[in-house]
Design a protein that fits this description.
4-stranded antiparallel β-sheet; 7% helix; globular
Length: 326
């Protein structure tokens, strides 16, 4: 046989092997979870390559080949993840790389109870204080409220807007405090009387907020849009729209809260998670995928405990495994 054709054949085989490896990596189902009985499946968090979960007094990681590793043992208050790091909140903040190596300890004497990773930042929430740091521990924004208790935070992708929500009660009335910080400090403080802020998320540089009464959009051009909601169950946003479950309906709004779609649900979905252009609706018995003005419903084997996502896709978390949604 001609050596030239042998050479071309070898190159073709090599290309096929590479493409097959990429395909299998992209469609990874984290088969390592098939062998693990998760103690706290709702605590599971995900970076771009590795999952981590609380296991009593330790943190266990599982990579995309199913390899497990204990990266932390000891007292902890909370666990979170960013794109490349895991954050463990104890008396300070321990930051671990995806490979399990300890990267940094941020010493902190604050009384913080929760930690959240978002857009390569970490936010720690205490009863009356909240702050956002970069992965080196540098302060990006901070807010103190001696009367209200902090409950929520949101950070935009550019990391130049930081939104915080806190809740206070006054003579049996709920008062939600809303703070919006920029890179140079506080931009806006507003009180929502008789409203509870349930969720906040940035849609590019516009902040979308959900309360027990309304959806609000605060734009970077200082415009405000709002729409009344009746029986809200869940909410999420992405670059394509704002998605809610309102009663037995799934509703889609644009960035100015114009309604662009409404679908009567066939299943009693309780939660929404958006990923790229796909939107996942789910409860513990199954899930639906919203694409191009319709929802396709799917049943599952077992109870869904949580749904998580990274840049590779969306994953269903069960007690003994994690499966990628096709």
């Amino acid at each position: 046989m001609d050596k030239k054709w042998i050479k071309y054949g070898a190159i073709a085989v090599l290309i096929i092997v590479i493409l097959l490896s990429l395909f299998l990596a992209f469609h990874q189902n984290y088969d390592g979870f098939q062998k693990i009985n998760l103690q706290e499946p709702k605590s599971l968090v995900l970076t771009d390559k590795v999952a981590a979960v609380k296991d009593k007094d330790r943190v266990l990681t599982i990579d995309d080949r199913g390899k497990t590793r204990v990266i932390y043992e000891g007292r902890m208050k909370d666990l979170a993840a960013g794109d490349e790091y895991f954050y463990i909140l104890n008396d300070g903040i321990d930051i671990y790389k995806e490979n399990g190596k300890h990267r940094k300890t941020i010493e902190d004497t604050g009384d913080y109870q929760m930690i959240k990773g978002e857009n390569n930042t970490l936010t720690v929430l205490g009863d009356h204080e909240i702050k956002t740091l970069d992965n080196d521990g540098n302060l990006l924004a901070k807010q103190v409220d001696e009367e209200a208790m902090f409950t929520l935070s949101a950070v935009n992708k550019k990391r130049n807007y930081f939104a915080y929500a806190a809740l206070d009660t006054d003579e049996n009335r709920y008062i939600s405090e809303f703070y919006l910080h920029g890179s140079k400090g506080l931009i806006l403080h507003h009180e929502f009387v008789d409203q509870v802020i349930y969720a906040m998320k940035f849609m590019d540089d516009d902040l979308v907020m959900l309360t027990n009464r309304s959806i609000y959009v605060f734009t970077s051009e200082h415009e405000l849009y709002s729409v009344y909601v009746d029986d809200i169950k869940s909410f999420d946003v992405n670059g394509e729209g704002i998605y809610i479950i309102d009663g037995d309906s799934f509703i889609v709004y644009d960035e100015k809260l114009n309604r662009i779609d409404k679908i009567n649900l066939r299943s009693e979905y309780e939660y929404i998670l958006s990923h790229d252009r796909d939107v996942i609706l789910y409860n513990e018995r199954g899930y639906g995928v919203y694409r191009t003005n319709q929802i396709n419903d799917y049943k599952v084997d077992g109870k869904i405990k949580k749904v998580v996502s990274n840049r590779h896709g969306v994953y269903l978390v069960f007690n003994n495994r994690m499966e990628r949604i096709p």
